[in-house]
Input
Amino acid sequence: MDIRDYLSDDGQALLALCSNFALPENARSEGLEPFKLSEWNQLARQIHDSDLQTPAGLQGQTADQLTKSLAVTPDLAERIVKLLERSGRLALELESLFSRGLWALTRMDQAYPNRLKKTLKHHAPTVLFGAGDVTLLQKGGLAVVGSRNIDEAGTRFAQEVGRKAAASVPVISGGARGTDRIAMTAALEAGGKSVGALPDSLERTVRQPDLRQLLLEGQLVLLTPYSPTAGFSIGAAMGRNKVIYGLADFAVIVSSDYQTGGTWAGATEALKNRWCPVFVRGSEDTPKGNQGLIKLGGVLLTEKDLAKAEDLPAWFKENFKPKPVERDLFD
Output
């Protein structure tokens, strides 16, 4: 794997500015605090409007020069300089990362999934780390999400969605226990492909022998908007939800709690922002959250619908009819 096939000069500068990757342990005490997404969006506009034009133009600039060129405070200019000064350490860590079959790319790079930028716009993650065939991220797919604790009916439904999707599109999910893994495994066992957007532990996950083989064979791609060694947090799990929906053509919610939990939060955000058409499993015994999501604009998907849909993407296109949303639940 060649780093230059993934990261441009602009991409490497953006990685240095916006990621915890390769930061030393004493980073915060040294003023090495990467830019948050909202901070970068503001700085990106200032760079674009300046003579520097692109992130790579920041390299080699002094704090005084940046203060004048970007019209930023001296403290912010010093922060930029310090983050970019670690380029040597960053290059060594990148070589190690790519030698292990992992990759990194940014919003500035050609390999970054266009669908993610088009759907999420300024909410698209600045940096992605991953493993597997990165071109699979350009193909869209079917997001399948749901609760970790899922009943027998939900398990059967997730398996059937995964199997049917395998014939034509990748299954995109979060790789978590329960619905995510059930749907992804069903797609892979049916000979299809899967994309897993992880909230943590990319490096540990790719070391699993069965997953490693699927990555090498091009059936599976794993990615994360966080550092490859990042630990789990609720915030990270919520944050990666938008990546799942942003990569997908359609989404199926198998099981959701009502007004609580990651599935509910991700689905309501997707519905509110119209990231993609959202279908929701519906029957007499589905959780209350499923019924709530249907009221918010999710399209009912029953077991009978699933059974008669030979081509899932075609069925979704034919049956997606946006309807009025009960806005009070968003307030």
User: Anything to note?
Assistant: Residues 326-331 have pLDDT under 50 and may be disordered. The two ends are 48 Å apart (CA to CA). Residues 196 and 291 are 26 Å apart (CA to CA).
